[in-house]
């Protein structure tokens, strides 16, 4: 079972907290909206990914298991 | 790619048979005469019948209808309720097939909707139609006629008119609006969370009309027309530089040239066609010899989409046409997703700078933005504009070099060809 970051782009306001917390998995486009790595979250980043999910000001970021 | 299989198909229209013969809308008596009673007994097997027939959605995505029915039925039985929405909104400015179908054979569409509702366990149906076309009154009259004659299942059928924004015809947006919300797309599939939170089948009007015929005549009959992968007939709205701009019904597998021929042929030599709609693809004129099926066109990043085919004459400027359409589409976003409401105006602006401003730097910037914006909205609106502009860069590649060198196409002196409505008035609102 792997986990991937997912964003609800309707809820997202481009605060950019996610890209600060896990730059390995999230970069921002020129307007400040997140571009997520398509790959699963590697084990050593799992804690950071969960923190980004928790601290998203719009609760737009989630971890989806597949 | 497969050749059209027309062995025992007589070539006559199926959905528009009556319309072709009389040019009048079919009332309930005429509908009953032509098609026989509504086979309510087929409803429990409807998903299996649709799958056996190979029916795929005609709203643009060509998704297998049987799988959709099965999914909504499953979610619906878990949730204890379901809903059916007939999507006849057709906000494509160049499209007219669903509007014609709803006007010409409303009872065929409603029959399909009732069967689908029984199949997924829905007690309510809403028909969503384009606002301001008079179709709401047409459908209300048809619904009243059915109730008066005790035709059908007795399920409640209502009519809704979503706002006229392009994105308001997207399936989650229609479900959102029918449920009392704004006509804006949502992040969650209508299968799971549709009208008032109920699992909802949002199905295109033409798809449901086919379903009403398949339930009567069976999958084998349906497969007599079309290709093995995509059986049946399909409606095409043909416009641009053809002799007879109208809606035509052809078997799937017909080539671009077959479709153009139905419309009286090109009115002048063509350089390209726009296929699918304003979120569709430009194809060079040479590609019109291909079958216009989802399978045959996939390598060209194209699809028949919602059946819109627009012929661009050699003397027109494809870049200028694309700038007009892309700018209009950019303004038709729902102000929801950042990559869409920022990205689409930026993309349209880049293309305008290439077309009019000799801005060489805009070329790479545009290519980069097309890659960045693609797939990043909650709905497919940004992806459609990306496809439109990306295929324009390929098909009109030579024109780009000339425009950047200051040599504009002679066609710029002509009247614009593709129909672009005036910008939607904000007073249209989202309710």
How would you name the oligomeric state of the polypeptide chains in this document?
A: heterodimer
How does CATH name the architecture of the largest domain in chain B? Answer: 3-Layer(aba) Sandwich
Number of helices of chain A: 2
The CATH class of the largest domain in chain B is identified as: Alpha Beta
How many domain units of chain B?
2
- CATH fold-level topology of chain A: Alpha-Beta Plaits
Uncertain residue ranges of chain B: 1-7
- Helix- and strand-based class of chain B? alpha/beta
Radius of gyration of chain A: 11 Å
If you compute it from the alpha carbons, what radius of gyration of chain B comes out, rounded to the nearest whole angstrom?
21 Å
Q: Can you give the helix content of chain A as a percent range?
A: 10-25%
Overall strand count of chain A: 4
Descriptive key words:
heterodimer; A: 66 residues; alpha+beta; Alpha-Beta Plaits; two-stranded antiparallel ribbon; two-stranded antiparallel sheet; 4 strands; 23% helix; B: 431 residues; alpha/beta; Rossmann fold; de novo design (two linked rop proteins); 2 domains; five-stranded mixed beta sheet; four-stranded parallel beta sheet; globular; disordered N terminus
Task: Characterise this structure.
The complex is a heterodimer of chains A (66) and B (431). In chain A, the strands form two sheets. Chain A has a two-stranded antiparallel sheet with strand order 1-4. Chain A has a two-stranded antiparallel ribbon with strand order 2-3. With 66 residues, chain A is of the alpha+beta class. Chain A has helices at residues 17-21, 46-55; strands at residues 3-7, 26-28, 34-36, 61-65. The mean pLDDT of chain A is 97. By secondary structure, chain B is an alpha/beta fold. Chain B folds into two domains: 17-223, NADH-ubiquinone oxidoreductase 51kDa subunit (Rossmann fold, 3-Layer(aba) Sandwich); 318-413, Up-down Bundle (de novo design (two linked rop proteins)), CATH 1.20.1440. Chain B is 42% helix and 12% strand. Chain B contains 17 helices and nine strands. In chain B, the strands form two sheets. Chain B has a five-stranded mixed β-sheet. A four-stranded parallel β-sheet of chain B has the order 3-2-1-4, sandwiched between helices. The N and C termini of chain B lie far apart (43 Å). In chain B, 58% of the residues are buried. At the A-B interface, loops of A face helix 14 of B.
């Amino acid at each position: 079972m792997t986990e991937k970051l997912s964003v609800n782009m309707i809820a997202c306001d481009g605060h950019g907290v996610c890209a600060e917390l896990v730059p390995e998995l999230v970069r921002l486009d020129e307007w400040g909206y997140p571009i997520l790595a398509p790959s699963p979250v590697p084990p050593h980043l799992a804690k950071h990914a969960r923190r980004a999910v928790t601290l998203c000001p719009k609760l737009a970021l989630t971890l989806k298991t597949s | 790619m497969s050749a059209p299989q027309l062995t025992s198909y007589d070539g006559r229209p199926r959905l528009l048979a009556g319309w072709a013969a009389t040019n009048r809308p079919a009332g309930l008596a005429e509908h009953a005469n032509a098609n026989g009673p509504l086979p309510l007994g087929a409803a429990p097997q409807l998903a299996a019948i649709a799958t056996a027939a190979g029916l795929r959605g005609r709203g643009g995505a060509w998704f297998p209808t049987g799988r959709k029915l099965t999914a909504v039925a499953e979610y619906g039985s878990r949730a204890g309720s379901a809903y059916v929405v007939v999507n006849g909104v057709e906000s494509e400015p160049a499209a007219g097939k669903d509007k014609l179908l709803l006007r010409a054979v409303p009872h065929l569409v409603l029959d399909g909707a009732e069967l689908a509702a029984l199949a997924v366990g829905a007690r309510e149906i809403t028909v969503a139609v384009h606002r301001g076309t008079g179709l709401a009154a047409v459908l209300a009259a048809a619904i009243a006629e059915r109730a008066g004659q005790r035709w059908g299942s007795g399920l409640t059928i209502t009519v809704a008119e979503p706002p006229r924004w392009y994105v308001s015809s997207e399936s989650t947006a229609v479900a959102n609006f029918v449920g009392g919300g704004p006509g804006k797309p949502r992040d969650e599939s209508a299968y799971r969370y549709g009208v008032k939170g109920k699992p909802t089948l949002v199905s295109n009007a033409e798809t449901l009309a086919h379903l009403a015929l398949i339930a009567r005549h069976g999958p084998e009959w349906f497969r007599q027309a079309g290709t093995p992968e995509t059986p049946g007939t399909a409606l095409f709205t043909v416009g641009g530089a053809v002799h007879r701009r109208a809606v035509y019904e052809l078997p799937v597998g017909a080539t671009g040239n077959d479709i153009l021929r139905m419309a009286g042929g090109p009115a002048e030599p063509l350089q390209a066609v726009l296929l699918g709609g304003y979120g569709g693809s430009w194809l060079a004129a040479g590609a019109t010899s291909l079958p216009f099926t989802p399978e045959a066109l996939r390598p060209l990043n194209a699809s028949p989409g919602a059946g819109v085919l627009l012929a661009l004459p050699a003397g027109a400027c494809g870049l200028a046409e694309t700038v007009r359409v892309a700018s209009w589409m950019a303004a038709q976003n729902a102000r929801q997703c950042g990559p869409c409401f920022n990205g689409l105006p930026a993309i349209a602006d880049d293309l305008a700078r290439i077309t009019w401003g000799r801005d060489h730097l805009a070329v790479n910037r545009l290519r980069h933005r097309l890659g960045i914006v693609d797939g990043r909205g909650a709905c497919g609106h940004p992806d459609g504009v990306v496809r439109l502009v990306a295929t324009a860069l390929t098909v009109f590649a030579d024109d780009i070099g000339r425009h950047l060198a200051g040599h504009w196409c002679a066609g710029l002196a002509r009247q614009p060809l593709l129909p672009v409505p005036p910008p939607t008035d904000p007073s249209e609102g989202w309710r």
